[in-house]
Design goal:
Blueprint lengths: L5 H7 L8 E5 H10 L1 E4 L5 E3 L1 E6 L9 H8 L9 E3 L3 H14 L5 E6 L3 H4 L1 H11 L3 E7 L33 E4 L6 H12 L7 E7 H4 L2 E5 L6 E2 L9 H12 L4 E5 L1 H5 L3 H11 L3 E3 L14 E4 L6 H9 L2 E5 L5 H4 L9 E6 L2 H4 L5 E4 L2 H12 L6 H21 L13 E3 L6 E3 L10 H10 L4 H4 E5 L4 H8 L8 E3 L8 H12 L4 E7 H6 L3 H8 L4 E6 L4 H9 L24 H7 L3 E5 L2 H13 L4 E6 L24 H14 L5
Parallel strand pairs: 2-11, 4-5, 4-6, 6-7, 7-9, 8-9, 12-13, 12-15, 13-14, 15-16, 16-17, 20-21, 20-22, 22-23, 23-25, 24-25
Antiparallel strand pairs: 1-10, 2-3, 18-19
Helix pairs in contact: 2-3, 4-6, 4-20, 9-15, 11-15, 12-16, 17-19, 17-25
Pfam families: TPP_enzyme_C (PF02775), TPP_enzyme_M (PF00205), TPP_enzyme_N (PF02776)
Family: Belongs to the TPP enzyme family.
Organism: Paraburkholderia dilworthii
């Protein structure tokens, strides 16, 4: 056969189709792509995936990303708002809190300059990584051309010229990329989006943006910027895993379910309710999972673990199977693996890594489909009748105790009480005796919730570190998913106020109440000014115990002397420790604020705060040593093996005894 003629070859070749392009800088393309991503919310409404971009500009991002954000801010079809903050770590915390408040279905981006702006993101990125929360970090970077090296704020490594300050973000990012050519966005952005929207991979994404590359132009394909609906990814359960799990549970008489953050992020509250009601399985809550079901659900035994309720911990200690749903089983949940060491663990988690803990039997799946499918497999199976009665009695008793612990104090009540058990350490702690003693956290938690008739369903409480998360985990009554927003995966002091801002931006119709200790307030408070500027009203309750009271108690529980935690026990100059006026400070940042001297005065101030239209700060002096005695569990904190102090030796013996109870 003769070879076809060239003209015939040309006729048979597929027609050339040109894709329309648009010429944009790297920064313009990035911003336009972000604005084009949309999500469908649970109520059916559509919303932008990115709620905005927090930005603090510097020489590393003002000319590139800054110009692109300015052009996009008022785009009639795809607007993308830019929000200014006062601290890079704080604005990243706010962005992370925004995503957490949206159960990871919406998120924000953060852009900084190079140098300290970028390194200020490391703590926030670690927080997002630990908590499996999405945030897009866009730090500026040094010049790819290296023509002006070293530029202002540049980190120089004499052994590796490719290293910049942004490399510090590698270990705390779930996906990291450095964009050194405009075309790289075409592959980097889809990869970044997959991590941000995948239940198993979810966490912080860092795209380092060299400042010269931000400004380079490229002909991008126009379809890349078409408005599109984002798909969220999560694994479905395997039949073999379900069969093994069902077999395990059919042999169980005393099961306990642990509700973790994955229940909320997987929108599995209804599936959880159906499972525990059908199979009569009592359940307990982690910090991240609290509020998945209402506080008064009959089989809700409350908080679990080191900061747990007596009801939940009692059941956990006697359970034969623990169903861990959407929890990474960190040490505060497991009592450093001493709370249920003899129970078989069934782990249901979208992240395979988390299903491998505690030698668990695994169902690698998002929570809702796993619970639904497992329930179908179990059919009419229920927990033992005696176990159900024990669980209902324990849960009812704890709910009554919660209300009593947070009830208004009666005149001269507990006037003769001078010690309370420290929830975190199980030790006795001195208190101020007499009827004039200072209030402690539970008194104020109760006063906050009494200040609104529908507080459990109406309010969102925000907290992160110190004693307050322990008290809130036990005592805050949550009436709706998302009403409890405590960052305890990283337990990051300074998250509270910035996080409250992010929650308010996500849920503007809810009352957001930030409860924060004086130590965390002093670490990071600048976003009070941002909340005022944005009209994002917060109620901030500052509990002033004049130091790091939580660690002071832990220090003594480990046999140490009070040292370098409370202001009174710190090295001081001739003027002594300052008397800090938190209300005056908050007013200087633009908030309304007052200091009160009693729980009754605090209750009145809460009414004024609720009625206010702008951020309102209430400070009150609190007892540094008193905590709620009920509940709690052992927590492993290593104690010195030798010491000249007999108190340390005694603490070491208690530590050794605790370790004997751990899972082996």
């Amino acid at each position: 056969m003769n070879a076809p003629t060239p003209s015939l070859q040309a006729q048979q070749a597929p027609p050339q189709r040109s894709v329309p392009t648009v010429r944009l800088t790297t920064a313009q393309a990035l911003v336009r792509w972000m604005a084009a991503q949309f999500v469908r919310l649970p109520d059916g409404a559509e919303a932008p995936l990115f709620g905005g971009v927090f930005a603090i500009f510097g020489h590393g991002n003002v000319a590139g990303i800054g110009e692109a954000l300015y052009a996009q801010r008022d785009d009639p079809q795809l607007p993308l708002p830019t929000l200014r903050a006062h601290n890079e770590q704080a604005m990243a915390h706010a962005a992370i809190a925004f995503a957490k408040a949206h159960f990871r279905r919406r998120m924000m981006a953060v852009t900084t300059s190079i140098g300290p702006g970028a390194t200020n993101l490391v703590t926030a990125a670690a927080l997002a990584h630990v908590n499996r929360l999405p945030v897009l970090l866009l730090p500026g970077d040094t010049f790819v051309s290296r023509a002006p090296d070293p530029v202002l704020q540049q980190i120089e490594d004499p052994h590796d010229a490719t290293v910049s300050a942004n490399d510090a973000l590698r270990s705390v990012s779930r996906y990291f990329d450095r964009i050194v050519h405009p075309a790289q966005l075409l592959s980097a952005l889809p990869r970044a989006l997959r991590v941000l929207t995948d239940a198993a991979l979810c966490g912080p994404v860092t795209l380092a943006l060299p400042q010269d590359v931000q400004t380079l132009a490229f002909d991008y394909p126009e379809p890349f910027f078409v408005r599109r609906m984002v798909t969220f990814h999560a694994p479905a359960p395997l039949a073999t895993e379900l069969q093994c799990a069902a077999e395990l549970l059919r042999g169980a008489r005393r099961p306990l379910l642990i509700a973790g953050g994955g229940v909320l992020y997987g929108q599995a509250s209804d599936a959880l309710a159906a499972f525990v009601r059908r199979h009569r399985v009592p359940f307990a809550e982690t910090q991240a999972g609290k509020g998945a079901l209402k506080w008064d659900e009959p089989l809700n035994c409350g908080a679990l673990g080191v900061t747990g309720s007596p009801a939940a911990n009692q059941l956990a200690a006697h359970a034969d199977v623990v169903i861990a749903v959407g929890t990474r089983l960190q040490d505060f949940t497991t009592g450093s693996h001493s709370l249920f060491p003899h129970a078989r663990v069934l782990a249901i988690n979208a992240n395979l890594f988390d299903t491998l803990k505690c030698d668990a039997l695994a169902i690698c799946s998002d929570a809702a489909p796993a619970l639904d499918a497992l329930s179908t497999q179990l059919r009419d199976w229920c927990s033992g009748a005696d176990w159900q009665r024990e669980a209902l009695q324990a849960a009812d008793g704890w709910r009554e105790a919660m209300l009593n612990l947070t009830a208004p104090a009666t005149p001269n009540a507990d006037a003769d009480t001078d010690t309370d058990t420290d929830t975190d350490t199980g030790t006795n702690a001195d208190t101020t005796a007499g009827s004039a003693r200072l209030p402690y956290d539970a008194d104020l938690i109760g006063a906050v919730q009494r200040s609104h008739p529908d507080s459990p369903a109406h309010d969102i409480v925000v907290c992160a570190a110190g004693t307050l998360p322990a008290e809130l985990h036990k005592l805050w009554r949550t009436g709706a998913p998302g009403g409890y927003h405590v960052e305890y995966g990283f337990s990051c002091m300074g998250y509270e106020i910035a996080g409250g801002l992010g929650v308010k931006l996500a849920r503007p119709q809810r009352e957001v109440i930030v409860m924060v200790g004086d130590g965390s307030y002093l670490m990071m408070n600048s976003e009070i000014a941002t909340s005022v500027m944005l009209g994002a009203k917060l109620i901030i309750v500052v509990l002033d115990n004049r130091g790091y009271g939580c660690i002071n108690r832990l220090q003594q529980a480990c046999g140490g002397e009070p040292f370098n935690n409370m202001l009174a026990d710190c090295l001081q100059g001739p003027l002594g420790a300052p008397a800090i006026d938190f209300a005056a400070h908050a007013r200087a940042l633009g908030a309304l604020a007052e200091h009160v001297d009693s729980v009754d005065a605090f209750a009145e101030a809460m009414q004024r705060a609720r009625a206010a239209r702008q951020t309102y700060v209430i400070s009150i002096d609190t007892d540094a040593s008193r905590t709620t005695a009920e509940g709690g569990w052992w927590w492993e904190v290593a104690v010195p093996e030798t010491s000249v102090r007999p108190q340390v030796d005694a603490a070491r013996e208690a530590y050794r005894a605790g370790k004997q109870q751990q899972r082996r």
